Amino acid sequence: MTFARQHRIQVVAHRGASEDAPEHTLAAYKKAVEDGADALECDVRLTADGHLVCVHDRRVNRTSNGRGAVSALELAELAALDFGSWKKDHDEVAEGEGPDWEGSAGDEVTSVLTLERLLELVAESNASGRRVQLAIETKHPTRWAGQVEERLLLLLKRFGLDAPPAQGPSPVRVMSFSARSLHRVRAASPTLPTVFLMQFVLPRHRDGRLPEGVGIAGPGMRILRNHPAYVAKLKRAGHQVHVWTVNEPEDVELCAELGVDAIITNRPKQILSQLSQL
Ligand code: G3P
Ligand code: CA
């Protein structure tokens, strides 16, 4: 199917360029910036000693050589783990060849990444003229009630990113499946854009209206495949639409056809290339 694209779709690197390098490592984010991603997506969790680190799962078992919940480990304990080597076993590579990311500087491909370091990367990139935005997802174990958002806003404040002007694009946005988490963020920083992530559409959101104050809708790709008309409802209700996780060419086509605003993907380079040809 071919069609003229009405507007430019933003490409957001999901956990960095996570198809090409271990997710949530500095190597994956540097690769995403190099590949031309418009924005970087990351999940954040609090360590036992109160640091925000970029880790998706509640536990470190899948993406490191350690075991246990992030919330039960201190940053120094996480720093002693290898967050990169699991991908070698996971990826299928041709015999005699290493994976693409193996050549990356050692620590960058194996160390746990703090949100602070990722914010530094974004600041460095923007200072050098390569503008890139950051979409931060709060993963929020209930035991931390409010502390993830509190620490996040303190950190954003240190980087001068907690209160972007209401007009113009914000360098940072906060995403969550939890309306309460987004509400906490908006209460502290009303101009910080928020994205309400949806795995499925609850009856109260069927008309396209989202929780009070949320500007951006974040439906999963499955919602678009099953209910493509939902995008128009969200747009009529005044929301931008950022879709996750879009890795397949036919899904990219559908997103473009429906006029979504951003595609969140593990493969920013390939998706940018496909979009440039639509
Ligand atoms: O960008 C939203 C998407 O990341 C939500 O799902 O499980 O990958 O955090 P998950
Ligand atoms: Ca995420």
UniProtKB/TrEMBL annotation:
The keyword Transmembrane does not apply. Pfam families: GDPD. It comes from the Bacteria. Keywords: Hydrolase. InterPro entries: GP_PDE_dom, PLC-like_Pdiesterase_TIM-brl. GO terms for molecular function: glycerophosphodiester phosphodiesterase activity. Its EC number is 3.1.4.46. GO terms for biological process: lipid metabolic process. Signal peptide: none annotated. The keyword Cytoplasm does not apply. Residues 9-275 form the GP-PDE domain. PANTHER family: GLYCEROPHOSPHODIESTER PHOSPHODIESTERASE 1-RELATED, GLYCEROPHOSPHORYL DIESTER PHOSPHODIESTERASE. This is Glycerophosphoryl diester phosphodiesterase.
